[in-house]
């Protein structure tokens, strides 16, 4: 893997935006078949430039306008905002209050830093293969619910480029949802509650909701290897005390503490906890039995969503195929068929794909020649020569499905018309 030198970023970005960025697919996505007039033109983009200069309310007329501006501005980071009532670039010319965010994809932001109290391998911005399983579980749990419980068809999952994942739900009806409905959906998907000062963050009712039960079934597939082996969450007194703090009943608490001292591994200790809990199911006012076991599993593994990102229609979120300015990694779409195989450390960096293009070290003269011949045709195919290609393919598959749905809707409408 190529190492990434942030000092090289401006030059690398120039090359990336000139020859590698998948503009036509990107435009095809945000234009949504051109069904709604000015849908793309009214979309807000925001750019973060060198030295953290942040520019909001960018908007573009068409694909070639977008290409030109991106190559001119060379943004370190691109965010996507809402579709507004007017062109965002002209928001100052509109009467006060008339400029309104009208539609946006329903988005989710899951960030590893929100798990710092339950992962033992890394903290803050760091991630490793041991804690990445948290993101794997999060994708499975949230995506299943979006698909099966809500019936949303078009879900694009994207690696953020550093320590988390984003999801863009793009169904036509979803893009029109109000903030209130979005809040309701995130509320449904949130089980871990309370900030740093709250110890026990998951409380299950006696009647377990099917969503919770299905989520637990997903966690069960990973729990032993992730929590008991890799994270070793019951390794020593310091680590198991954090879990015993979630056990309410004094007698059970003491029993566990005694046994844990004698046991030799997290696996053994967890087996004992399950046994003790299930034999104490009838203790008054206590939710032992599977509830205790499940509450601990959920607290340690259930996805932690950034609620505010999902609620607001006008909230900005980092764009797919934007570059992470610190790691140099591209925000690539994640193949839902291969979530378990996704490895953030093999995601291409901007320097690796630029080197793959094999032009970085060419002489200045050759560079000029390349620039001169950089017509659209040539450019749009260049990413295929690099390891970015499979990720663009995942994106294209997602776009195909959007197209199919749109055509299906049109057919339905024309059949209805014929029926009359
Ligand atoms: Zn880690």
From TrEMBL:
The keyword Mitochondrion does not apply. It catalyses: ssDNA + n NTP = ssDNA/pppN(pN)n-1 hybrid + (n-1) diphosphate. GO terms for molecular function: DNA-directed RNA polymerase activity; magnesium ion binding; ribonucleotide binding; zinc ion binding. Keywords: DNA replication, DNA-directed RNA polymerase, Metal-binding, Nucleotidyltransferase, Primosome, Transcription, Transferase, Zinc. Its EC number is 2.7.7.-. It comes from the Eukaryota. One of its GO terms (cellular component) is alpha DNA polymerase:primase complex. The keyword Metal-binding applies. Gene3D superfamilies: DNA primase, PRIM domain. GO terms for biological process: DNA replication initiation; DNA replication, synthesis of primer. InterPro entries: DNA_primase_S, DNA_primase_ssu_euk/arc. Its cofactor is Mg(2+); Mn(2+). Belongs to the eukaryotic-type primase small subunit family. This is DNA primase. The lineage of its organism: Eukaryota, Metazoa, Chordata, Craniata, Vertebrata. The gene is PRIM1.
């Amino acid at each position: 893997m190529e190492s990434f030198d942030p000092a090289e970023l401006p030059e690398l970005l120039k090359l990336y935006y000139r020859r590698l960025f998948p503009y036509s697919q990107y435009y095809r996505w945000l234009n949504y078949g051109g069904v709604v007039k000015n849908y793309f033109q009214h979309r807000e983009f925001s750019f973060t430039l060198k030295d953290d200069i942040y520019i909001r309310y960018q908007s573009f007329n068409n694909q070639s306008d977008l290409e030109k501006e991106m190559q001119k501005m060379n943004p370190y980071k691109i965010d996507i905002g809402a579709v507004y009532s007017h062109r965002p670039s002209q928001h100052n010319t509109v009467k006060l209050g008339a400029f309104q965010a009208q539609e946006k994809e329903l988005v989710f932001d899951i960030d590893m830093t929100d798990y710092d109290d339950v992962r033992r391998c890394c903290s803050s911005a760091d991630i490793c293969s041991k804690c990445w399983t948290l993101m794997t579980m999060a994708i499975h749990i949230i995506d299943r619910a979006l698909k099966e419980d809500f019936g949303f068809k078009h879900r694009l999952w994207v690696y953020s480029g550093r320590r988390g994942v984003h999801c863009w739900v793009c169904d036509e009806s979803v893009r029109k949802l109000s903030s209130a409905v979005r809040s309701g959906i995130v509320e449904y998907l949130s089980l871990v509650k309370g900030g740093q000062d709250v110890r026990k963050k998951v409380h299950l009712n006696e009647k377990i909701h099917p969503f919770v039960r299905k989520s637990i079934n997903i966690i069960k597939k990973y729990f032993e290897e992730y929590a008991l082996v890799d994270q070793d969450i019951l390794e020593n007194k310091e680590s198991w005390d954090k879990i015993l703090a979630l056990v309410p009943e004094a007698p059970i608490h003491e029993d566990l503490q005694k046994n844990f001292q004698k046991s030799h591994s997290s696996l053994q200790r967890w087996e004992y906890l399950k046994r003790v809990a299930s034999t104490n199911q009838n203790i008054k006012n206590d939710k032992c039995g599977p509830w205790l076991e499940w509450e601990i599993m959920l607290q340690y593994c259930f996805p932690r969503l950034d609620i505010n990102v999902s609620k607001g229609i006008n909230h900005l979120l980092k764009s797919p195929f934007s570059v992470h300015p610190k790691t140099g990694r591209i925000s690539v779409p994640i193949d839902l068929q291969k979530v378990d195989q996704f490895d953030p450390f093999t995601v291409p960096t901007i320097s690796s794909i630029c080197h793959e293009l094999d032009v970085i070290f060419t002489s200045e003269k050759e560079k000029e020649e390349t620039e001169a011949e950089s017509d659209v045709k040539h450019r749009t195919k260049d990413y295929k020569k690099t390891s970015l290609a499979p990720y663009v393919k995942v994106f294209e598959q997602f776009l195909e499905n959007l197209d199919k749905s749109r055509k299906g809707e049109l057919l339905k409408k024309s059949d209805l018309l014929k029926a009359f």
